[in-house]
C-alpha cells in the first residue's frame, strides 16, 4: 500500500511560484528543489501530491468574480498605457519633437480609431509636420463623426481649426460656412467665405475663389465688392461674357461712386466704345452733381437710351 509523503519544501516553493511567478530567485531554487525531489520520489516510489491548480485554469470552474478579475486588470492596464502614451506625446510636443509625438498618438489611436479627441490632436501635428493630405483626412473624419452624432458646435470647432492649419484646403472653408449657416450664423458664414477667398489668389486657384464667392452670393446676392471681385475673376478666366452680364445686373443695384466703378470695370473688360461712353456719362453726371439714372443701362452691346451730355 502506497503512502503519501509529507508536504516538502519543493511543494511550498511551487505554491509560492503560483502566487508570484515573477520572483526569479525563487523560481530557480524551486526548480532545483523540485528536480531533486523528483529524483528522490522515483527512487523511493512514493506518491506525488495532487498538483496545484494554475491561475490559467478553465473559467467555468471559478466563480463569476474570479473570471472577470483578469479582464478588469487588462482594461486597467490599457487605460494606464493610454494615459502614459498621451503624457509622453504632450512632453514630446512641448519639446518640439513633432514626429515622436505623432508616433505616440498613432499608438494611442490604433486600438480605438473612433476617438475624436486623439484624432483631432494627431491631425494638428500632421498639419504642422507638412503631411497635409492625411491631416485633412483626419480632420474631416472627426468633424463628420461629430456631425452624425448631432454635435454641430464641436464639429465647427474642428473644421475652423482645419482652416487655420490648412488654409489652402477649399473643403475646410466650404464645410465651415455650411455648418455656420445651419446654426443660423449667416454673417459669420459670409466672413468665413471671404476669409477663405483671400487664400486663393493664384491664377491656378481661380476656380476655388469663384466657388467661394458664389457661395457668398447665396447669402447676399448683390454685395458690391463681392460681385466686382467675382466679375474680375470671370474676366481673368476667359469668361468675359459672364463677367459683363454680372456687372450689368450689379449696375441696376448701384448708384453714385459704386455705379461709376461698375461702368469703368465694364469698359476695362470689353474695351468697347459703348462701355467707355457709359462710364463717361456716369463720371460727368456725378461731377455735375446730379444723381445717375439707373434706367440708363447698357444692354446687348448698345445703349438702351440716348446719352445726352
Task: Please describe the topology of this protein.
Layout: H1 9-19, H2 24-44, H3 64-94, H4 98-109, H5 116-128, H6 132-148, H7 152-165, H8 170-182, H9 186-197, H10 206-219, H11 224-236, H12 240-252, H13 257-270, H14 273-287, E1 298-299, E2 302-303
Antiparallel strand pairs: 1-2
Task: Explain the overall architecture.
It is a single chain. The protein contains 14 helices and 2 strands, in the order ααααααααααααααββ. It has 309 residues and is mainly alpha-helical. The model is unreliable at 15-69 and 291-309 (pLDDT under 50). The chain is 69% helix and 1% strand. α11 packs antiparallel against α12 (240-252) and α12 (240-252) packs antiparallel against α13 (257-270). The chain starts with 8 loop residues before the first helix and ends in a 6-residue tail after the last strand. 25% of the residues are buried. It folds into 3 domains: 1-49; 75-166, Serine Threonine Protein Phosphatase 5, Tetratricopeptide repeat (Alpha Horseshoe), CATH 1.25.40.10; 234-309, no CATH class.
Which CATH first-tier class of the largest domain would you pick?
Answer: Mainly Alpha
What is the rounded distance between the termini? 138 Å
> What are the segments in which pLDDT stays under 50 over at least 5 consecutive residues?
15-69, 291-309
Strand order of the largest sheet: 1-2
Based on CA atoms alone, the radius of gyration comes out at: 39 Å
Percent of residues in helices comes to 55-70%
Helix and strand content put the structural class at mainly alpha
Instruction: Enter the CATH topology name of the largest domain.
Output: Serine Threonine Protein Phosphatase 5, Tetratricopeptide repeat
Based on DSSP secondary structure assignment, what is the total number of beta strands?
2
- By CATH, the superfamily of the largest domain comes out as Tetratricopeptide repeat domain
Number of discrete domains: 3
User: Based on CA inertia axes, which overall geometry fits?
Assistant: elongated
List the total number of helices. Answer: 14
Order of helices and strands: HHHHHHHHHHHHHHEE
Q: Please name the CATH architecture of the largest domain.
A: Alpha Horseshoe
Main beta-sheet annotation: 2 strands, antiparallel
Residues in β-strands, percent: under 5%
Averaged pLDDT: 76
